[in-house]
Amino acid sequence: MKESRASCPKYSVLQEIEYNKLNPLRILPTSMTRVEEDGVHGNDGVIGDIIHPIERGIIKDWDAMEDLWRYTFYTGLGWEPGNEGQLLVAEPLLTPKVSRERMVQTMFETFNVGGLYAVEQAVLSLYAVGRITGVVIDAGHGKIDIAPVWEGAIQHNAVKRFEISGQDLTDFLAKELARSQPDVKLDLATVEMLKEKYAAVAEDSSAYVATAEACPKIQHTLPDGQVISVGRERYDVGEALLRPSIFGIEEDGLAEQLLRSVSTCSPSENQRQLIENIVLCGGTSMIRGLDSRFQKEAVLVANPSVRPSLIKPPEYMPDNTLINSAWMGGAILAKVVFPQNQHITKAEYDEAGPPIVHRKCF
Amino acid sequence: MSWQSYIDDHLMYEISPGHSLAAAAIIGHNGSVWAQSENFPQLSPEEVDKLLNGFEENSPLAQNGLFLGGSKYMVLQGDPGIVIRGKKGPGGCTIRKTNSAFVIGIYDEPCTPGECNIAVEKLGEYLFEQGL
Lengths: 362, 132
Prior knowledge:
The complex is a heterodimer of chains A (362) and B (132). Chain A is globular. Chain A has helices at residues 62-76, 97-110, 121-128, 166-180, 188-198, 205-213, 233-242, 254-263, 269-275, 290-301, 325-337, 346-352, 356-360; strands at residues 4-9, 13-17, 26-29, 32-35, 46-51, 54-55, 58-59, 86-91, 115-120, 134-139, 144-150, 153-154, 160-162, 218-221, 227-230, 278-281, 344-345. Helices cover 38% and strands 20% of the residues of chain A. Chain A is α+β, with helices and mostly antiparallel strands and 362 residues long. In chain A, helix 4 runs antiparallel to helix 7 and helix 8 packs across helix 10. Chain A is built from 13 helices and 17 strands. Chain B has 132 residues and is α+β, with helices and mostly antiparallel strands. Chain B has a single domain (3-13, 20-54, 63-102, 114-130), classed as Dynein light chain 2a, cytoplasmic (Beta-Lactamase, 2-Layer Sandwich). In chain B, 29% of the residues lie in helices and 32% in strands. Chain B is built from 4 helices and 7 strands, in the order αββααβββββα. Chain B has a 7-stranded antiparallel sheet, sandwiched between helices. The two termini of chain B are 13 Å apart. Chain B: Its main location: cytoplasm.
């Protein structure tokens, strides 16, 4: 019996996981550089800049993506050509049909996988916390998506994409730091690290306003010796999610968007259950203080008869469940789908072609 | 090929061990039943009417629910203009539109949505290519 792997192409990170372990075997950043054919070790053969084949959740550079997958399967996971395993792919929301079909085609024709199953990340994030109904806010690097899911089915007409995502927050922080300390030279990777270390969300909007007056500055020494001080900028970054208008983006904040998304779900009796079961997951959701502040804002905006609440992962799940919720769910689902032969087999693919993915993967 | 044999051999067959559709039918756009399995529910004229326009995105079926013989299905992601997929608890339905008919399959546990989709859509595609 071939082992299955869950693969989760995300905005900044590609994750592979072993069938029966519940932690990622390998987390690979989806950034690559082109090397000359002969350049194997070191930077000698590097040409050009860093490439990110995935933009905002959609694969843009298919050749690069293929190379990344090749590396992941054969080098990372240790598959042997001719003895490839089975794959469960966690797809981002709003993936175009063509993109989906192309992915399936690549997997079966280029990589000869033994079996394939594709599921949207939002549904998997819910499985990771043991549910099939709820609203998933997947806050990632390339995009933040709000998706209500009812009994395992995404309500596509209610799905909302939020304007700001992790990479926008990084850009934002870089601009703010450049403004307050123009002498310090920063590259985006460093800013990203600073964001992950220091970004926070104020307890409520008045606390945020107070940071304008007085905010302790933290001195951070960068690897190249420069010292940068991070003050109010750390709270600006967090606040951007709840009130994008601060940064000139004319959009409602995360809490309002969530409620708007749920209100387009029908029947309306379902809406209460959705609001009372929110999953806030993904890398960007780890910003300190976001969960409690989000819940406060949601309560303010929601109908008084409803109590918005965030779902906590069950105790038996590992600590990093919410960051990696989509493929945690994928790992759980893979154990059910593949043994029951609900996946797409090579034979079915050969018979029906790439469109089989729309029929079988549900 | 009689219409009934389409139902018996191409819709109500055993898709995988122990899995087959609960009911199936081929119904003309005007509501006439070309063939159906024994326990297929009777569709009302209004239900058939709603199907005619129900294949587009954000159709009234998605808002209010899809009704087949009085049973309510929640509309899921389909293929605009071609396929409607519905869900009702652990079961559901798939409807494939052809030039003059609807191929409808209704499934329940243990049959999976994917299996129902395959059976219905394969037959639907075939009929469509035959000009029906």
